[in-house]
Write a structure and sequence with these properties.
Blueprint (H helix, E strand, L loop, with lengths): L19 H11 L9 H6 L1 H14 L7 H25 L4 H26 L2 H28 L11 H18 L2 H6 L3 H37 L1
């Protein structure tokens, strides 16, 4: 009988990004101090609230850009709960890793789509279409992570030195700049964004497939050597 493989979806490859080390220290400090009545799954499900909030903020910002402060607050709260949900389950050894893997990343996609969809509501015409295109591009990065995990057993969520925390921070900075300077500079830069992100995605896919190819070739050589030894 084959040995049952241990689930590794809750064991991400260590983050390699500018904010990763500081983020780990914050999580290690906060997790033991969370109230006992808070469960990891509750933190996971709060992303539904943050998604609704960030989408509503984008819609309301059409009349008053100061509503983007609410969008930034939703980005911060989603970082807070998303960073702590799995860590809390591991710390208490009372987590539900399979459900957590599924729901956490499904809701991560929902929040990403809501955050970018909020910008789509703020802008009109071609700019709205470009924001919707970027939902597909960011979704492609997530698909790459899941397919790579299925092929290698390594779950990686940082790309080209950038992880989810850096992405959230970038959107908070963008919100602040829009509130101060208006949307004009975004309309100038936005047409180039899909090309930049698309190029980054091509680089990530090439690197990922090359790594998987090397793993397959090593396995193929081992199998060939094993047949020779028989």
């Amino acid at each position: 009988m084959a040995e049952k493989q241990h689930f590794k979806g809750d064991q991400k490859v260590p983050l390699r990004s500018p904010l990763a080390a500081g983020e780990r220290r914050i999580i290690q400090y906060l997790v033991p101090r969370l109230p006992g009545w808070i469960e990891g799954y509750q933190l996971t499900l709060t992303t539904i609230l943050w998604s609704a909030g960030v989408l509503a903020a984008g819609y309301l910002a059409r009349r008053n850009l100061n509503w983007l402060w609410l969008a930034s607050a939703m980005l911060f709260m989603q970082w807070f709960t998303d960073s702590l949900d799995g860590a809390l389950g591991k710390y208490r050894d009372f987590g539900i890793p399979k459900w957590g893997y599924y729901m956490d990343h499904l809701l991560d996609y929902l929040f990403m789509a809501a955050a970018l969809g909020g910008y789509a509501l703020l802008f009109d015409g071609r700019d709205r279409t470009l924001w919707l295109v970027m939902i597909a591009v960011f979704g492609a990065f997530m698909v790459n992570s899941f397919l790579s995990f299925a092929a290698t057993g390594e779950f990686k969520i940082t790309f080209l030195g950038t992880g989810p925390t850096e992405s959230r921070l970038a959107l908070i900075i963008l919100n602040t700049l829009i509130i101060i300077f208006g949307t004009g500079f975004v309309q100038v830069a936005l047409p180039y964004a899909p090309y930049v992100l698309g190029s980054a995605f091509i680089i990530v896919v090439y690197s990922t497939q090359r790594h998987i190819w090397q793993l397959d070739m090593e396995d193929k050589r081992r199998r060939g050597q094993g047949r020779k030894d028989v």
